[in-house]
Amino acid sequence: MELTDIQQLFDNYHRRLAKVDLRFKRYLYSKINWNARLIGIKGARGVGKTTMLLQHILENYEDVDQALYISLDDLWFSSYTLMDLVDWACQHGIMRLYLDEVHRYENWALNLKNIYDNYPDMSIVYTSSSLLIMDNAKVDLSRRQTTYTLAGLSFREFLALEQAIDLDPIPFAELLKKHVSHAMQIVKQIKVAPLFEAYLEHGCYPFYRESVEDFTTRLREVVSLVIDTDLPSVENVTFETVHKVKRLLMIISERVPFVPNMSELWKQLATNNELGLRMLYALDKAQILSLMTSKTKNYKYLFKPDKIFLGNPNLMHVLCSKVDTGNERETFFFNQLGVVCDVKYPKQGDFLINDKYLFEVGGKHKNFEQIADVPNSFLAVDDTEIGVGNRIPLWMFGLLY
């Protein structure tokens, strides 16, 4: 293979690099051990995986052509294979590859295993759909790779991206104890309420910066791509199943947070329990839905969820015909806490955090009536800038990562 055969990949790579901004980086960027030989980063579409790879290249290579970024859904791979690329790269001294959309490449896991085993000087960073359970691929990469999951933008990151205020993440335990002092410092500098409202509408995906006006259309396209393209590339599903997944999503979107009657739901979809649960958990992995359960979720052994939410508040504004404020509050809380804590469905209250802390979520007039006399119980209250005692402003739970 000659340089002319690969020039197209370099042209695409250079065009992407030219548009990368280094001023804002996602929370995961500094947590990744970039020195590992095989790194896997999964996450929902649109949360910034590609940008993170390109930022790392720009920051760490004086000559960017010492590395190469490629999207594995590029048409170039209709004529050549990934192993063709690796052979060429090795011959030309390029020993660091950044592979995007790896789930779109047939037998991706086997290829990565062979590269890892047969090219000991080659390092690879790859991204994939959050639908992919990397350790459960047909070829086990778990002993070879270091894996990470990138969540959507937190409210803290949104504030930084908007250049409103740059804050360090507040650990959950510290937030419970010191939320008043943190809030007092923050509200001196910014007006929280309008920024929080904007975040709930469009702040979970970095691409909102490109055009807020087109955000709804863009997010709808992201959801469609996940179901139409990512799902079939990861799961063995038929066109009929894809159609049922879309119908399932629309049914749930009109009822969230949804306490499921499974037999009624499967009857509406003309499906059985096994396929129905597969569809639900696929949407959960894709971060389009969030399934809350009273026990730890296990993607190998699927069981009925206790409550179903949309994956984040932005999806409510795109998929629901009407956004209920109470549901939006709970969706935000579940979405933000789920990144850093274990969140379960409790017998009493709204959310059980780390098997210890019980939370009720509501407006500023919410009281402790429903969780009175329960140890380690808290309220997450909206429309409040500064809390008191165990009453913590809802927006502050967006500062955890």
Annotation keywords:
12 strands; 401 residues; Rossmann fold; five-stranded mixed sheet; five-stranded parallel sheet; alpha/beta
Strand content: 5-15%
Q: Please count the helical segments.
A: 13
Rough outline: globular
Radius of gyration: 22 Å
Structural class: alpha/beta
Order of helices and strands: HEHEHEHEEHHHHHHHEEHHEEEEE
Largest sheet: 5 strands, parallel
Give the oligomeric state of the chains in this entry, treating copies of one chain as homo and distinct chains as hetero: single chain
Low-confidence stretches: none
Q: Give the neighbour order of strands across the main sheet.
A: 2-3-4-1-5
Helicity level, as a percent range? 40-55%
Q: Span from first to last CA?
A: 45 Å
Number of strands: 12
Count of the domains: 2
- Chain-averaged pLDDT: 93
